[in-house]
Design brief:
With about 450 residues, the protein is α/β, with parallel strands linked by helices. The protein is about 35% helix and about 20% strand. The strands form three sheets. A six-stranded antiparallel β-barrel has the order 10-11-16-15-14-17, surrounded by four helices. Strands 2-1-3-4-5 form a five-stranded parallel β-sheet, sandwiched between helices. Strands 7-6-8-9 form a four-stranded parallel β-sheet. It is globular and about 70 Å long.
């Protein structure tokens, strides 16, 4: 077999570490007997037509997902018409930054390929442990999972007539955050106002000191607040005031915000801390302009009668039978037993974010999904474990109700988006009833 490789990376992650991982992956591929490996052998930091040309003659295009990337280049590669696979690498849970975040890249690519009706195989394994022979033999190809009818009595949508403000468009290559206004309205009756990022930035800059003071007061007791840059901190907290002003004036129930890169590169302060504050106040805010993510949060928040956290699944470990949920620092602070600390964004190095470990307890995962272009409900249950911090930001180690490897397989086979909402408590039965009321199938991860 002629294997065409596309090693993907992004410079905002730990490039030297990524290059170490890539060297191990290339060594494993070169050790395969009877196969020819073609294509670039250095990290591709941006889309490259030349790289696609170099693998166009391959029998299999193998994307090496060394760090997180968006899905746009993977989708372009799928258009070559060559069978495809993705190999993503894990990283140790050492309490520091997510140095690679490769699983999230795999997750993003899997959803995008599903939406584009492109089959593929996948691996999530370290060099030296990956079953490349099985991958080449087709052992790990996705098998479409659409779920089944919920089998319970229907209940009414708990948040009819939602009003959502989408602030800025979702990032390129984030098919997980795409939406159609008419389809969403037909599905649940939600209305979406499409605002520009400048609307939020201008509102924040125009706030008087008296309007910003309450948000400074909210963080006054954070022990290490003095370590934050004062200008970044003030600009960040102004975003909380701007969101509250927009909510109050327009009666919005939730927000979907394009949080990067412009909040850092154009405005100069993170929206993550304000998102945590809004979530604690029961106004869900979805990152990356994920409108369906905002709807997902609003539904789960109403069912749980508690704040929710829209998180990425960033690791699954078969040996320990656990996964890690994470985001950069925007979980509601009531979700920890520890004292929240102030921090900066791991990649962009600007304030304000919260850093803490999620408290132990029963949790429910939920997503109103558009996987494979077909609306459905995705549910999982588990226990957040008492653990050391897995990665900086807000993170937690979870043991799902079903084996981690089975949950991982269902995540890939279902084409699930990279954001799921988390609430404490067991709310699966209520969510099944809502799915029944919407006439949607349910995917229960790992079941």
């Amino acid at each position: 077999m002629k294997i065409g490789i596309l090693p993907l990376g992004r410079p905002t992650f730990d490039v030297p570490y990524a290059e170490e991982k890539l060297a191990g992956m290339l060594a494993d591929l070169d050790a395969l007997e009877g196969h020819e490996v073609i294509g670039p052998r250095a990290l591709l930091m941006e889309a490259s037509p030349e790289a696609l040309d170099a693998v166009a003659s391959a029998d299999l295009v193998l994307v090496l997902q060394v760090t997180f990337t968006d899905a746009s280049f993977v989708v372009e590669a799928s258009k070559l018409g060559v069978p495809m696979a993705i190999w993503a690498v894990p990283e140790p849970r050492l309490g520091g930054r997510l140095r690679l975040n490769a699983f999230c890249g795999l997750n993003l690519a899997g959803h995008a390929l599903g939406r584009n009706h492109a089959g593929f195989g996948w691996l999530y394994a370290d060099p030296g442990e990956a079953d490349l022979a099985g991958l080449l033999a087709g052992k790990y190809r996705v098998t479409r999972l659409d779920g089944t009818a919920p089998g319970v009595a229907a209940t009414a949508m708990p948040v009819p007539d939602l009003r959502i403000a989408r602030i800025g468009a979702h990032p390129v290559g984030f098919d997980t955050c795409a939406y159609d206004k008419a389809e969403l309205k037909a599905l649940i009756g939600a209305e979406v106002d499409e605002l520009e990022l400048s609307d939020m930035f201008d509102a924040a800059r125009g706030l008087g000191e008296d309007a910003v003071a309450p948000y400074h007061a909210k963080v006054a007791d954070v022990p290490n607040l003095k370590d934050m840059d004062a200008g970044e901190l003030d600009r960040s907290l102004r975003l909380a005031g701007a969101l509250e002003m927009l909510r109050s004036e327009n009666k919005y129930d939730a927000f979907a915000i394009r949080c990067w890169p412009e909040t850092f590169t154009e405005y100069g302060g993170a929206v993550c801390g304000p998102v945590s504050m809004m979530g604690e106040a029961r106004v869900p805010c979805a990152c990356e302009a994920d409108v369906y993510g905002a709807v997902t949060q609003a539904i789960l928040q109403e069912v749980a009668n508690a704040p929710v956290f829209l998180a990425d699944l960033v690791d699954m470990n078969e040996e320990h039978d656990t996964g890690v949920v994470w985001h950069c620092g925007q979980a509601p602070v009531s979700m920890t037993e520890d004292e929240p600390m102030a921090t900066v964004h791991t990649n962009r190095k600007q304030a304000l974010l919260y850093e803490f470990t999620l408290k132990p307890g029963r949790v429910t995962f939920f997503r109103l999904s558009q996987a494979y272009g077909q609306p459905k409900v995705v549910i999982a249950g588990g226990k957040m474990l008492r653990s050391e911090m897995a990665f900086t930001g807000t993170s937690g180690v979870v043991r799902f109700d079903h084996a981690a490897q089975r949950v991982l397989g269902d995540v890939m086979n279902s084409g699930l988006e990279h954001h799921m909402a988390i609430a404490y408590g067991d709310h699966r039965e209520a969510l099944r009833g809502i799915a029944a009321g919407m006439g949607l199938n349910v995917v229960e991860l790992g079941a």
